[in-house]
Amino acid sequence: MGERTIQDRIILHDDLGTAEFDFSDMAFTNPAEVDAFYDETDRRLAAADQRWYFLVLYSGCVIAPTAWERFAARGKQTNIAFSLGTVRVGATAQTREAIREHAGRAMFRANIFETRDQALFAIGEMRKRKETLGALSSETFLRVENIHLSFGGVRSLAGVGFEVNRGEISSIIGPNGAGKSSMLNVINGVYHPQVGTVTFMGKTRQHMRPHAAANQGIARTFQNIALFKGMTVLDNMMTGRNLKMKTNFLQQALYWGPAQREELEHRRKVEEIIDFLEINSIRKTPVGRLPYGLQKRVELGRALAAEPILLLLDEPMAGMNAEEKGDMARFVLDVNDEWGTTIVLIEHDMGVVMDISNHVVVLDHGEKIAEGTPDEVRADPVVIRAYLGEG
């Protein structure tokens, strides 16, 4: 594995809060070699008793097919335990492809850069976002309190309350009919609860109006796809920019001067999202011709076009196969990581929920039965009974 020792290849930059791992010119030919490196890595990081930004150098690194599964699994475990964010530099085309493949299946962020300077800049941006979130952490971002919602004699929500922290991914889970979609509809003003309040960005109200929610930075996708099937991907996503348009109807009709400049700027923003979601090849395709999984991605893109600070996702992976779910989970993570968007999602795939969520709320028959970290919720006997019907 080269003349340098494993210890020499693990460098802790205290001034930058960055842990550097130098895989340059190393060869991992079997799982035992992987374990040797990560055992030492975990020991060093545990002794430091803090979390770090990870800078991983791959120049000349060779990872044998027999070692890849172990390499990806140990890397993910170390990231979860000690990392504030990870960037990777100098991987060969083959290694980059393998990392992206494992990132999609294991639902972690690839974050691969060509140069060390690009990677350090990315770490700097991550640090700025965390510092901003820390400065704002004392402000209530989203809190719902004592929500009661009924339709005639049918109770949908009964006394539900929870908080969502800025910058996190929170999931609402529960059996069918638990009241999950109703809760999202309360948050963005589609439904008005009979009792209870919603506090968003420090402002408390009982009834939020949908257009006011959108103006304040709340965007939404729906359980059933709500796209304009005859319009192209690009045009559908441009509709997400409506609230950002400042020119009047006459200027837009003439398409001259300010209106033309404004539309070109909005189109540029949408094109960035199209690239981000890797759907450039279908940008001119009517969405009605697209398979279900791509339509769901377009709907996510339309919500992102509104530049939300809070994104509500109602079963974004429903009806998808395993590969499509992996892609969507990766995009959700990247939206949260790269743009700092706070996300509240409803999802029935517990594997996805437990892998990507910071916080989980469990509803059953309109009541909150559990709340906490994914591990806490997974082990809760009340949650187990709600899902499995065990006494």
Uncertain runs are: 103-110
CATH homologous superfamily title of the largest domain = P-loop containing nucleotide triphosphate hydrolases
* Helicity, as a percent range: 40-55%
The CATH topology of the largest domain is given as Rossmann fold
Query: Do you know the CATH architecture of the largest domain?
Result: 3-Layer(aba) Sandwich
Mean pLDDT: 83
Counted beta strands: 17
Brief digest:
The chain has helices at residues 31-48, 65-82, 93-106, 116-136, 180-187, 210-215, 233-238, 249-254, 258-276, 292-305, 322-339, 350-356, 374-378, 381-388; strands spanning 10-13, 18-22, 27-28, 52-57, 62-63, 83-89, 112-113, 142-151, 154-164, 169-173, 195-200, 203-205, 218-220, 310-314, 342-346, 359-364, 367-372.
